[in-house]
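Aim 2, interim progress. The first record below pairs a target sequence with its C-alpha cells.
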Amino acid sequence: MRQGYSRSSAEQHVCFIAHLDRWMQAEGVGLDALSGSVLERYLAQRRAAGYAEYRSMKALEPLLEHLAPLGVLPIPPQGAPGPVEDLLGRYRG
C-alpha cells in the first residue's frame, strides 16, 4: 500500500503470488529455476484454466522487481517484450 496500491489491489496481488507459489510447489520449481520460460509455462496454464486476470508477464513485474535486488532469481526483472508488449509499444509510438 506504501507503493500506491489500493487495499483490494494489494490483496488480489497477494492471492496471485500465493497461486504462483502453490504452482511452483506442485511443479517442484524453486526460485533458482524461475526462468522466463517457466513463468510463461505457469501463465499459459493459468490462462488455460480460465483465469481472467493476472495472465501476463506484466502481472509478474511487481514480484520480479521485488525479488531481483535480493539476487534470488536467475532472470532479470524485465525480459524482452513479448508480442503484445511490442504491439502496444508500436501503438504508443
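The second target in this work package is listed in the same format:
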Amino acid sequence: MKLKEKNLAISLRKQGWSMNEIKKELGVSKSSISLWVKNIELTKDQKQELSNKGVKKEIIEKRRATRFKNENNRRQIIIDKAREEINNLSLQDLKILGIALYWAEGGKTQRGLVRIANGDPKIIEIMMEFLRKICYVPEKKFRGHIHIHPHLNIKKAENYWSSVSKIPLSQFYKTYSKHNISSQNKKNSLPFGTFDIYVCNTKLFLKIKGWTEGIYKNIINMPG
C-alpha cells in the first residue's frame, strides 16, 4: 500500500477536495482514493463548495463546446465559399492536376514504371481519372499494391482500395504487411494503409516527365 499517498489523500479529502482533484494531484487511481477516504464525511459547506465547482465546470465545458462549434461553423463557411469558386473543370484542368500530383507524389526512379502511392482515397481517385481519361491506360495494365500494418484488417483494406481505384483484386500484387513498432499504441490514422497504382509503360513514364518539364518551363517563363 502507498502509505504516503494514502495519508495525503485523507488529508486533502478532509480539506474538502474532490476525488478527481486528489487523483490529479497524487497521480493514483480513483478507486484507491475512494477506498482510502470512504470513512471521511464532508461538512455541509464542503459539499456545497464541491457542488458549486461542478456547476462552474459544467458551464465552462458548455461554453467551450459552443465556441468550438461556432469556430467550426466559421471555418466551414470559408471552405464552402472556396469550393464554389471551383467549377466546370475541363479535361485540360484534369491533365494539369494529374501531372502536378504525379510530380509531387509519383515515382521517378524506375524509367519503365509509372507509380504513385498515397493514403488519401481522393488523390487515388483523381489519379485514376487522370490515367484513364488523359493517359488512356487500358484497364488490364493497372496494378494495385497495398502497404498496411499487420494489426489492421487486410481483407477490408483490399476491398476498400479496389472500390476506390476500380482496379479488380485479381490485378493486385500481394499486400505488403510489416510490423512497425513506432505505430503501437497510436491512433490508426490510416486504417486501410496506403495504396500504390502501378502501370508498366516506359513511353507513358517519359511522357509524364516531359509534361512536368513543360509545366515548369511555362510557369518560370510566365510574364510578370
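The CA atoms of residues 16 and 46 lie 5 Å apart. This observation will shape the mutagenesis plan for the next reporting period.
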